[in-house]
Amino acid sequence: MVQGNEFEFDIQEAPTFTYVRVHMKKGQHIQCEGGTMIYFNPSLEITTKKAEKGVLKSLKRTLAGETFFLNTFTANDDGYLGLAPVFLGDMMHISMEPGKRWIVFSGGYIASSTHFNTETKFIGAKKMFFAGERAFYLLIDALDKAGDLFIGANGAFFEITLQPNQLFNCDNGHLVAMEESVTFDIKRVGNWKSTILSGEGVITQLKGPGRVIMQSRNPREFAMYLYRFMPKNQGGSSHSNF
Questions:
Q1: Alpha-carbon dihedral 185, 190, 193, 197, rounded to 10 degrees
Q2: DSSP states along the chain
Q3: pLDDT at residue 242, as a whole number
Q4: How far apart are CA 47 and CA 76, in angstroms?
Q5: 227 against 23, higher pLDDT
Q6: Residue ranges covered by each domain of the chain
């Protein structure tokens, strides 16, 4: 059992089929991404609402790969619930402190304290062409009270800490979260032939200082790999490749 800023929790079955069991005391609340709940104690009550204030802001959140609605669990008495990402991989707890904001990329957000302020941000039109599904991200702020954030990875987590002005290149599909103090830019490497044909011609360049949390698998590349083996429609009927 680990004591967070607000909740006690256990991260179990790591690192491949990971889920978190959050223990809640009477009167506590936690908000969760839709589709992440595995189970919850009958002493907990669930309510569902728009992820952000206003329909347009909630719709914008879906562009960041998250759900339009969030579920909030309230403990009418001491209880617990189990949460997990939709993909295979690990989970991590981030201790959120006032004055330090985190960026969370598509699919990384699982659950958090309810008092957090969450905004969907756009990286800009200039970068959007290369960023693809990572053109939007969540900016999470603990405001004036510490709390708990739970994130999920596709595969295993690995973390680096960048020093001031230190540069680091990566594939943006492997980014999960990072401190807001880390800045990033989408860049082309090599010539246009490399950019179009290699699959590695566009990178995200990070600049410190701050923590960066990455995942060992790229969700989009994994989905494209699986697509190769899916049955294809031929002449109006579905035929299996097997």
A1: -70
A2: -EE-SS-EEEEESTTTB-EEEEEE-TT-EEEEETT-EEEE-TTEEEEEEESSSSHHHHHHHHTTT--SEEEEEEESSSEEEEE--SSSB-EEEEEE-TT--EEE-TT-EEEEETT-EEEEEE--HHHHHHHGGGSEEEEEE-TTS-EEEEEE-SB-EEEEEEPTT-EEEE-GGGEEEEETT-EEEEEE-S-HHHHHHSS-SEEEEEESSEEEEEESS-HHHHHHHHHTTS-EEETTEEE---
A3: 45
A4: 13
A5: 23
A6: 2-228
Is it true that the peptide bond before 209 is cis, omega within 30 degrees of 0? yes
What SS3 string covers 104-119? ECCCCEEEEECCCEEE
Tens digit of each residue's pLDDT (9 = 90 or more) over 24-37: 999 999 999 988 99
Mean pLDDT along residues 135-155: 94
- Top-level class of domain 2-228: alpha beta
pLDDT in tens, 51-79: 656 555 555 556 555 565 789 999 999 99
Six-digit token string for 178: 């990072």
| Distance from C-alpha of 164 to C-alpha of 93, rounded to nearest angstrom | 25
Bridge partners (DSSP) listed for residue 101: none
Instruction: Tell the residue number behind the tokens 């990178």, with chain if given.
Output: 203
Q: Please list, residue by residue across 174-194, b when 16 or more beta carbons sit within 10 angstroms of its beta carbon and e when fewer do.
A: bbbbbbebbebebeeeeeeee
Q: Give the global pTM.
A: 0.84
- pLDDT at residue 230 is higher than 70: yes
